[in-house]
Structure formats: structure tokens, C-alpha cells
């Protein structure tokens, strides 16, 4: 017997009641579940409502289809035991805990008709990401955003321990949730008939409250942050399952978490208990002789796209529209000759992002996310047309803060990442700007999103979504006053480990290249794009048309900086990253002054994955092209933005790999502050 039983009965119970409410109030609702490995509940309910069989026609609505459904569950080559990309109606990977509520809020921003019912496991509620996610209500504007109905599933236990929120007094829990800005409604008990009545009545009440909040704000405008309702749903773990097994209590304890009846091969009595348990649900009254759900019960589910498993918001590519993109060339820096002027790359990028925001203002489908660093990262031109979002108290001394702002700032990288993921997964566009060293805080969230994209790209009914775009700035090379704590370029290594079909890494050397790369990334689909660019004034190398050609190629010889004149060089000076590019040009200048007879070739790399063989990454150069640029046997001095191992990993199959020597940021320099590697 496989799967995780403990949380499933509660998820089933809530799903069915939401179905009733959707039909009664014609709600546009999706269901996000945070409890770990609650996949059985979502798979079963989307099967019963018919969505699963529509998307997977071999899983038919009869006994044979049900057998296939059961056999593939939590089985190699089948489907996971948690909610995943394969699960209809899902936008939240249920294996790693902590992100359900932040995804729910990301989904409803700029989505005024959407209600997200978000079930939060009481074990999940102990994670840092979830604990912070409660504060998302301070960013929700009922005028143009949808609503989240948090449902804290308080069943008391994790895998082997009680949960914190289940072991504090009810009054304390109530005060905690009210302190977060919610109005909690408690539903508690273990008698199904009584809980049915409680939940039905409470759902009617909280839906009416939500509608009243929205109607008032949309009629009179935003005046103050509302107190949103939520539900605390307290029922036994493993509810309605085996109560006692081998003399030990199961229902209502941690033993119900996963498999309440194990060792079936060696304990025949457990098989009989399993049969009795299954028969207690009276399946003969629920299904006809062919194994199909009887019409009377099937008719209780919502119809068409009102079914939570078929709601297009849970398959955001169905709703996705291209951004209206201005001509990025209008924001370019005029460069008449390489290295003759300086500019701030991210300041220029901010102007482009402002123009995108302005052009898509009425569509409300583009937001910028970042942890209190938009101004620090020089994206300040955004504030010419919008402010930072907040529905909490705003004081006259605050700078560019508005209840209607479109820049989402909160000092939690988890929230920024989660909001953006929820926003993208429901069919919108965005960008996450962050200090390079601190993006590691969301390493694991990046992992999960990358896995989601990889799996969903192979699911025919999942439509492509807008790419997740990172701008990493305030980077390792220019920490003039912060020191070691702000220096770590290792996120690039982390990203490069993921599927070549998903990840892209760009290191534009100047502002015009950054504009070209940004335009490309914001037009792309189903990728994770990482852009690394400094915010400080730096020399500018390429005019706009040169930058476009260079970024389109991904890398190339800078003839103006080289003196090999098309012949075989004595040395190749390669670079990737804005500061390493500057240092390479400076080094070449010294070499040409000191050793004028030395033939030097400069190769600049924008698209880091172009270094990989074409067989390993779609952007990779074939071996002939690589050898033409980097030669087959000449020394290559590679000035790299990050750690050297990544360059060696990407090029180890290349003919001239043994002659590649990487100059980098390795933490062996004794000074606390580093301005440059040279």
C-alpha cells in the first residue's frame, strides 16, 4: 500500500465543499494544497470530476481506468505521491513544503475574479517561507486583485511529531492569526455529519465577506487594508481511516501520516482490515456496475472550466498574452568608440522596464519583484510611473509607496520568488531583481520551479508560461563598502546543474548588451533566465547594433580589442562578465604595450551556455565553431565573473580544454573588500 493518507481525508472534504460553493456562487476558483504528499486527494477529485480522464484519455471513467489510476500512483514511471505538474488544477509542487500561500497570493495579484482556496498544512506552517507568507495580505488590493482564502489544516501531526500550532491554546492561535491581519473561523470535530454542516455554513459566510470587501473597494476605491477571512479546519489526522492497528492508535496520531496499514505481505490480518476500511465507504452506492461514478454524484461537480482541475488559471499558458514590447533601442547609450564613455547598465535597463510597464499598464500583466533593492539596484526609472506596493499604513515621509504600485518589495527573497512563480504560473510576466550574493536564499525554490518547467514541458496539455527572469546585480566584483558578506557568484554554478532545455545564463558586458538580453528574456517562454549585470558606472563597449549582433551570437571575437587580424593568435584573452571584461581589456592594453609582437585575440562571452557543446545545450557551439574562436592549442586566459570550476565544467569536452586557465573570484584574497580580480 502506497501514498500518504493522513492529510488526504481533509483535502477531500474541503474539495467537495468548494465544489458546492463554486456551483452556488459561480466562483472562479483554484485549489492550492500545501500539506506534503497530499497528491491522492487532488488526483482522486480531478478524476471524479472528469478532468483527469479528459487530459489522460487512457485513464477512463470505469473499473479498468480506475485500476490504471491506482497502479500508476507513486510508482516508477507513474505519478508522484504529491501534487505536481502532472496533476490537473495544480500550480504548487507539493513535495517541498512552505510555498502554498505565497503561490496563492502570486496567483491573485492582478487577477480580480480569481479566488484561491489555499490549504496550509500545520506542518508546512512551521517553515520560514510559510510563516512569512501570511504577510502577503499587506500587498493585496481588493480593487484589482483577487482573493485568497487560507485554510489552515490543523490535523495535529507531522511525520513523527506533533505540530506547533496544534499544541498551543486555541486563544493563542486565534490571536496569532488575527495579528497577521486575518479573521479566523474555527471548524473542529471528528463527526463527519457535523463538520459538513459547519464547513458549508462557514464557506457561505466567508465568501459573502470576501465579496463585500471587493464590492466596496471596487465601488468606492481603496481606503484601508481589509481584514480578510480565513478558516482553521481541525479534524483528526487520518480521519475515517483505521482507528487501531496492532494495538496502537492510528487515527488522530502521527501513525496515520503515511501508510496506516503496512506489511501486508506478512500480516494477512492487515489485508482484512484494509478491505473492511475500503468497504466502510460503501463503494457499491457510489459507483455503477462498470465502476463509473453514479450520475447523481457526478452532477454535483462544477461544469467545464469551473471545475478546479480544469480552471485555466491552473494552466496559465492558456491565459498568457505576449507583452507589448517597446523598442529597446530607444533606451540605448550612444557609443561612438569602445571604452570612451561610461554608463550605469541597470539604470538604463530601468528605463526599458518602465517603458514596458507603461505600454502594458491597462493589461496589468507585468510586475517587478525584489527584496527592498529596486532603488539600490538602480532600477529607479520605474518610479517615474509607479510605486512600491503596500496596502498597510503609508506615511507622507514614505518614498514611492502606493496601494496601487506595481513594484513588489518585501525583505524576503522567498516571497519575491514565490509571488513571481504564482504570477507566472497563472499567465502573467515579471522579473526578480536581487543582490547576487543573497539569491542563494531561494536556491531550493529555483530547483522546484526548474523541475516543474522540465516536467510540464513534456505534458501535452500544459501550455508554456512566461520565463522566470532574474536580474542579479550589486554583484561580487563591486562591493566597495559591504565586504565578504555580499560576495558570492555561486548561483551560476547552481543554475548550470539544471536541464539544458530550461536554463539560460547571460553576462552582458555593458548597458546596450543588457538591453538586448533583457528584451530577449522577457519575450521567452518556459525558461529560467539569469542575467548578471553591475549597477556601477562602467565603460561602454558596443553601440546598439553591435550589441544586438553580439548577443544574438552569444559570444564572439572583439576585433577592435584584438591584434591577430584573423590569423592564429599567440594567446586568447576570454572574458565573461562586465568587470572581467574591463580587466581583460586593461590586460590586453598592457600586453600590447609591453609585448607588441604578441598576437592577442579577445573573445567576449555573453551567453555562458554557448561554451557547452551543441550536443549538451541548444545554445552550445559545435566543436568546429569553438575551435575557430578559442584555437586548438593556444593558451586561453579566461577572466570569469564566477568560480573557475564552472568554466572547466562547460568546456571539458573541448579540444583545447587543457590550455584554458581561469582567473576568477575565488576566496583566497586576504582583503575583506575586493574591487577587482586583477
Chain-wise SSE layout:
Elements: H1 8-25, E1 28-33, H2 39-48, H3 51-55, H4 63-72, H5 100-108, E2 114-121, H6 128-133, E3 147-153, H7 170-179, E4 182-188, H8 192-220, E5 228-234, E6 244-245, E7 248-249, H9 268-279, H10 283-286, H11 295-298, E8 342-343, H12 345-359, E9 366-370, E10 388-389, E11 401-402, E12 407-409, H13 413-425, E13 429-435, H14 443-456, E14 468-473, H15 491-496, E15 503-506, H16 511-523, E16 528-532, E17 538-539, H17 544-553, E18 555-557, E19 571-576, H18 578-594, E20 600-605, H19 623-630, E21 636-640, H20 644-651, E22 660-663
Parallel strand pairs: 1-2, 2-3, 3-5, 4-5, 9-12, 9-13, 10-11, 13-14, 14-16, 15-16, 19-20, 19-21, 21-22
Antiparallel strand pairs: 6-7, 8-17, 18-20
Helix pairs in contact: 1-2, 1-8, 5-13, 12-16, 16-17
